[in-house]
Amino acid sequence: MKTVTLFIAGLLLYACSAEAQRYMTKSGNIKFYSDSRMEKIEAYSHVVSSIVDMTTGDFVFKVPMKSFAFEKALMQEHFNENYVESEKYPNATFLGKVVNVREINLGKDGLYYANVTGKLTIHGITKEISEKGSFEVKEGKLIGKSRFNVLLEDFNISIPGAVILNISKSIEITVDVTLEKATM
Fold it and tell me: Which terminus of the chain, N or C, has fewer Cβ atoms within 10 Å?
């Protein structure tokens, strides 16, 4: 995890170099949603750090697991203590690439579809993922959005038998970030 943190810090420092086409935010949004036959569970985080280099397509995001807010305090407590073990695994990260970055015209406002591949790390487990999303160029900003699903078992997140019917095995993740051009 220290390697990921150092990499992200280095990338953020690198973002401030001249002539860069880098966009960043420290206040993006991530939502996760579980829809089981017994209960619907939603949690939101507005503490998402993200940076994308539109020259190379390199793309990074990080979200502190404790930043997710739930409707019910008990759900939040179980999430942090029992399921994702936030003390032991404090962040979820993604290190990847916008594969079709050359198709996104930063000089023209509009909606552009993106193919993103990379490594998603949750609960100390890293998985290769490939997902679709979009970038909207709007008034000099870059609005990134994606919706995808993750399987809890892929990230070694186990649900106790007593509440197994309350939580879906597949969790929908929605990412919504507004990135601004990185400046010195």
Answer: C
Q: Is 151 in contact with 176 (CB distance < 8 Å)?
A: no
Confidence (pTM) = 0.85
Q: Which CATH number fits domain 2-16+24-181: 1.10.579.10, 3.40.640.10, 2.40.128.110, 1.10.10.10?
A: 2.40.128.110
Q: What is the pLDDT of residues 94-137, one digit of tens each?
A: 999 999 999 999 999 999 999 999 999 999 999 999 999 999 99
Q: Which two tokens stand for residue 33?
A: 């949603």
Q: Which of 63, 118, 51, 68 shows the shortest CA–CA distance to 91?
A: 63
Q: What tens digit of pLDDT does each residue of 18-40 get?
A: 456 999 999 999 999 999 888 89
Helices marked H in the chain — which ranges? Answer: 2-14, 73-78
Buried b (16+ CB within 10 A) or exposed e, 59-73: bbbbbebbbbebeee
